[in-house]
Design brief:
Two copies of one chain form a homodimer. Chain A is an alpha+beta fold. Helices cover 32% and strands 27% of the residues of chain A. In chain A, strands 1, 2, 3, 4, 5, 6, 7, 8 and 9 form a nine-stranded mixed sheet that branches. Chain A has a six-stranded mixed sheet with strand order 13-12-11-14-10-15. In chain A, strand 4, helix 3 and strand 5 form a beta-alpha-beta unit. In chain A, helix 2 crosses helix 3, helix 3 packs parallel to helix 5 and helix 9 crosses helix 11. The longest helix of chain A has 20 residues. The relative contact order of chain A is 0.14. The N terminus of chain A is likely disordered. At the A-B interface, helix 3, helix 10, helix 11, strand 13 and helix 13 of A face helix 3, helix 10, helix 11, strand 13 and helix 13 of B.
Amino acid sequence: MSAVISATSAVQTAAFNWPRGFCTAVAAAAIKKQGRADLALLSMPTGAVAAAIFTRNIFAAAPIEISRRHLKESRGHATALLLNSGCANAATGPRGLANAQECVDLVARSLGCACEAVLVNSTGVIGVQLPLERIAPVIPLMCARIPDCADGGELEPFARAIMTTDTMPKMSSRTIQCGDCVIRVSGVAKGAGMIRPDMATMISVLATDAAVDAATLDRILRAAADASFHRISIDGDTSTNDSVFAFASGLAGNCDSALLAQAFREVACDLARMIVCDGEGFERSLRVRVTNAATRADALKVAETVASSLLVRTAITGGDPNWGRIIAAAGRAGVAFRASDLTLTVGGILLFANSEPINMDSPARINAVRAAFNGTHVEIELSLGADMSAGTAAAEMHSDEFLSCGLTTEYVRLNADYTS
Amino acid sequence: MSAVISATSAVQTAAFNWPRGFCTAVAAAAIKKQGRADLALLSMPTGAVAAAIFTRNIFAAAPIEISRRHLKESRGHATALLLNSGCANAATGPRGLANAQECVDLVARSLGCACEAVLVNSTGVIGVQLPLERIAPVIPLMCARIPDCADGGELEPFARAIMTTDTMPKMSSRTIQCGDCVIRVSGVAKGAGMIRPDMATMISVLATDAAVDAATLDRILRAAADASFHRISIDGDTSTNDSVFAFASGLAGNCDSALLAQAFREVACDLARMIVCDGEGFERSLRVRVTNAATRADALKVAETVASSLLVRTAITGGDPNWGRIIAAAGRAGVAFRASDLTLTVGGILLFANSEPINMDSPARINAVRAAFNGTHVEIELSLGADMSAGTAAAEMHSDEFLSCGLTTEYVRLNADYTS
């Protein structure tokens, strides 16, 4: 029996370990570089309920195509996940598909499971074939090294193995006390969407030892991603290989699904923040929060438009209190609101209301505004006001937010100077 | 009587003069800097049919609000246009509106015309009030200096006076032989949308001495802008002050409207190209052409997505033949097409077809591809192929294109280093 304790006390930050029922191994196959782990295997010896969100890009990579099919054929179950860096295996045609299938077959044979119980993804340069001759001999050796880790090993080796341009491993973990059960939710991620040409893609793996059915896990995963990975942007480009996987081993028992959802959301939000703050050329992050919108979609659209504006993002990099760019970006978001209803605060300081800039005569106030634009993290809040013409009550107003980072010369340099 | 001669022979490039019925004066009012012309007046002493396209930004500047109203009240007629740089007069509330109105009143009094015959726009920093105390005394003096120029003076002084961060004046002109009439279409523009925080906005003024009614001029202007200004991007940000004005004095007589439309389109396309190639930090331009789309809107959406992708734009800056980014951007444009139908050529070289990269084994071919990515102008062409499933005939396929430029460290530096 599980008593639902209040969310704040029930969900707690945990050590960076996998939940029970998950074990990992990594290996170096010299896919792009010598001597660095570029293959990572997550094994679920007792099986797991599985869910995933894949890129909606038309040029979804070959491994995405296979994983999507396997997840459907297995009705949301999996025994292993194979990831590689150094090559995206995207835009590679039938040969790319055959190569990804061969990797999956090798894992299935080595672990003694069905092919459709193996999921797979790749990250790296687009339009280049996988060097199967170097990968194939390594897979069985890696599978043989899978330890017996029913208690869950450390997250870090796996998190490190999937790092590409990331400067630090991205990990997060929570435990939930559900009656007598202690449930763990852990996650790892690799760095932000298409920051570097040869190291594209964000990939995240979330895992729990709670017992949950496939439909519930899918719902929990989508809600968590919606609050996190779907609300961040580095450069607006969506990779051919973007994916978030979720697995539940069930070894720790049942858990209240609202608490489980909260833990997934918190872990996903941690990872999303880490991705933004570890983007190539990162100097400053910004969060744009939009309140009092007519619909939540409106709030999100304005928040994303402001957070993605190159002019806002360069101003943030420069620590420039050029708030006119924020207003201008909000005004072109394609969302209907009255200009006179909008209020803008940055770092809690009111800058614009009733169609006019707020008086900037006091030097102390000007310094406070400059300081608000000059932190490592800049908080922008826009209220779109009540739409009185539509008779909308304040209680019906909606809010949402979006996370991004300043656009830096370093970002441009890294992305322009690459030569293949 | 006007005989319609074949378009290519009838529409000819012309010297950079205004058509008959247009005269200009410029003045320095120290709006932002001392000693530089920051006011520009276009006078049409015999009156002109007028049309305009204004920004759709919710925070449209005060002068835009006035011009929009005047154009409506006058049913598409105008006698003067006043432009200023150094201050956008946007997000300035009731006081900003009163200031813009005061400028208009001064022009109307000085020229002896109705207020609603005067149009106005501003460009510069957002959220700052116009220094009316410095502008007001200058306007009557400037109006008094308007020369008698029934034959049309040079474009250059006006084009220079509206320059902000532009490095060169942007002008274009065409003449049309229509029977016995020689019609002129001339245009000027100022630099590309929100490149610099304190010098935002693109403004263009197109003028002809053809006789044309307001509805026809409006239609011709919209078609010309659709083919030019609506198909370029520097940073994706839309200013609070973007505007394109068109005027027709009628002094040169009637003209075939198709020829007139062609001349407007050619002038507008010249100016749009100049805007892209004179953006801050400009190094390389790119044109993305999409063919064989199911609809023209689909073609435009894919073209704009690819041309606006930060990863494509940084690759172009680096001269990097990283074509995977082009495919990935096309695949996330939100347009339905089959991955296997897409072909990609850059500089006429086929890089991707039938879901696979085209063989890159020959060093000569690799060098040719590198050269195609390394020019001052890069031509990208994507064919989305025929959608056989919908039974669409080749003749029903559509194409469109979009113009942009490489994203450079200089662009970021200029936009980040500004301090107000």
